[in-house]
Design brief:
Rossmann fold; 5-stranded mixed beta sheet; about 55% helix; about 10% strand
């Protein structure tokens, strides 16, 4: 059984899945809670993201102790069919990934939106053109990142080293402490992911 309803709709699902494999992609619902609700100890929690529709999801998954080797193999293949799957070892890790890669596409959208707004306000670029340009930038930039031999940190360092236009932008962003709001946002999302049922209905 694959559970893919919104966490706030979980209470409406009344199923006895005794002994069956239950795979959940719901945020905020822990493996012990799933096991007790659905009366099975064969539980897998996974966290795909919206990129799955392009077969580009990064999908961490967590198996309960009683999930069989066959359950795990099925899960790995199932989620690998929509991108890259990775088995993780704890609820805490899965909760963090819920924020990092589960919510990640929306965070990238927020960054893109900030760039588009700047291009319109400071650069005088027409809104439709700014959206098109930033859309292509994210596609091209993320493809380069995915294939680069350097880490993102090394790429930033290389550009700072050139001391040109890009360095001026990067140094000003660093001086404005761009990392802190990003870290805070990820922490808030991870805390929400870990908060569980009590927070789902509030
Ligand atoms: N979207 C993502 O990128 C993403 C990524 C990772 C995890 N998730 C998780 O995936 C889950 C679903 O997200 P979503 O974005 O797909 O939400 P969604 O578009 O709202 O889809 C929820 C689905 O659940 C169905 N549903 C609701 N109550 C039901 C019930 N009582 N019995 C049977 N089906 C019921 C809905 O059917 P109707 O349309 O008929 O109401 C709908 O098809 C959430 O738990 C979310 O945390 C989503």
């Amino acid at each position: 059984m694959l559970l893919s309803v919104r966490p706030s709709d979980l209470d409406a699902i009344r199923l006895d899945l005794s002994g069956k494999l239950v795979i959940s992609v719901m945020a905020m619902v822990t493996s012990p809670e799933l096991a007790s609700r659905f009366r099975t100890r064969r539980v897998i929690r996974a966290m795909p993201n919206a990129c799955a529709e392009k077969r580009l999801s990064f999908t961490p998954w967590l198996a309960s102790q009683d999930a069989t080797a066959e359950d795990c193999l099925f899960t790995e293949r199932f989620f690998a069919s929509s991108g890259e799957a990775l088995r993780v070892g704890s609820e805490a890790e899965l909760n963090y990934f819920t924020a990092l890669t589960g919510s990640g596409p929306a965070f990238l959208a927020a960054f893109a939106d900030a760039m588009i707004r700047s291009a319109i306000a400071d650069g005088g670029i027409a809104p439709a053109t700014a959206e098109r340009a930033v859309g292509r930038l994210f596609l091209g930039g993320s493809t380069l990142l995915a294939e680069a031999e350097q880490t993102p940190a090394e790429i930033v360092e290389t550009f700072v080293g050139y001391a040109g236009t890009t360095a001026a932008g990067l140094e000003t962003m660093a001086a404005a402490d761009i990392r802190t709001p990003i870290a805070k946002g990820l922490r808030a999302a991870a805390e929400r992911a870990a908060a569980g049922h009590a927070r789902r209905t509030t």
